[in-house]
Amino acid sequence: MSDLNTLEAEISAAIASAETEAALEDVRVAALGKKGSVSEKMKTLGKMSPEERKEMGPALNGLKNRVADAINARKGVLKEAALEARLASEKVDVTQPLRLNPADEGRIHPVSQVVDELTAIFADMGFAVAEGPDVESDELNFTALNFPEGHPAREMHDTFFFNEKEDGERKLLRTHTSPVQIRTMRSQQPPLRVIMPGRTYRCDSDQTHTPMFHQLEGLVIDKSAHMGHLKGTLEEFLKAFFEVDNVVLRFRPSFFPFTEPSMEVDVQCDRSGAEVKIGEGSDWMEILGCGMVHPNVLRNCGLDPDEYQGFAWGIGIDRLAMLKYGMNDLRAFFDADVRWLKHYGFRPLDMPTLLGGLSD
Ligand code: DAH
Prior knowledge:
This protein has 360 residues and is α+β, with helices and mostly antiparallel strands. It has two domains: 2-89; 105-344, 2-Layer Sandwich (BirA Bifunctional Protein, domain 2). It is built from 13 helices and ten strands. The strands form two sheets. Strands 1, 4, 5, 6, 7, 8, 9 and 10 form an eight-stranded mixed beta sheet that branches. A hairpin with a 2-residue loop joins strand 6 (249-256) and strand 7 (259-270). Helix 1 (2-17) runs parallel beside helix 4 (50-89), helix 2 (21-32) runs antiparallel to helix 4 (50-89) and helix 6 (110-124) packs across helix 12 (317-325). The chain is rod-shaped, with a radius of gyration of 40 Å. It starts with a helix and ends in a 16-residue tail after the last helix. Bound molecules: 3,4-dihydroxyphenylalanine (DAH). The site of 3,4-dihydroxyphenylalanine has 11 residues, from strand 9 and strand 10. 3,4-dihydroxyphenylalanine binds at residues 176, 178, 217, 256, 259, 289-291, 312-314.
């Protein structure tokens, strides 16, 4: 009998010191499992004399039941403790201010949004995207684009020049994206259909001018591209961009050294309300410059103007953003004011596509 008391004391101690449900299960198996200490004792009942069995039977059954009850009771305690611990570790302080997911909080700058929209529109028309550096050579920004040395058109650009280097070269911050036309024509063979978005720089600052701004250059070169294609391309692009069914364009003769003929394009609009509406009304607004690529420019890129021809255009991206999204001061674009960005910015996961909608 004292045997059984010792065994019970041992098992009780093991139960009490089991800190996890897994440890408790080990104790149960060691006591009540097939080869457990209590079960082994039960097996000895068969070999006992009837008298012995009469005494030991109830004693062993009692032990077995008490051990099982103690294990169950301990299990309940451990379960409760585990739940408490989990509740404590997963506690949420509902008085804490809500922290937004970065994807909900961050905003895409309208200039980036418009570049994405323009890329979606022109990609759909079969255009590739090309880029060039902001720091450009005089040759690419001017000379190769048929601006003769000392020509007054160079002065019109209010260029930021770097200091002259020892070899006499003077780099500059590109005044337009047109030098990327030269880079493209010199590095790729026609047929070419490319758009070239990027930063451009001129020493100028007021409500509609900032020293750094953005342009989108377009270039199409093949053996037969003509002004009709230029007109059609611009019309389709502007309809898609302003998300209207109709735009009316007016082409006025103009001058750019790198195109002949050169034109400035006005779009019909309505300025009577607070916002400018494109595609209706009786006003005109100048929005871009374009023309047929000058034979000298083709020659400067190693292309024979008797074989190849094409058209190009340049348009202000910031201005497009202002017109479409109703901002009236360009300088605010580059103030890095998060309140402005929160108001005018776009949700990062709403990528503009022609199918899904450009701006919604
Ligand atoms: N580069 C011109 C500017 O910044 C814009 C321009 C006009 C680009 C006519 C062109 C073009 O490609 O054909 O004022």
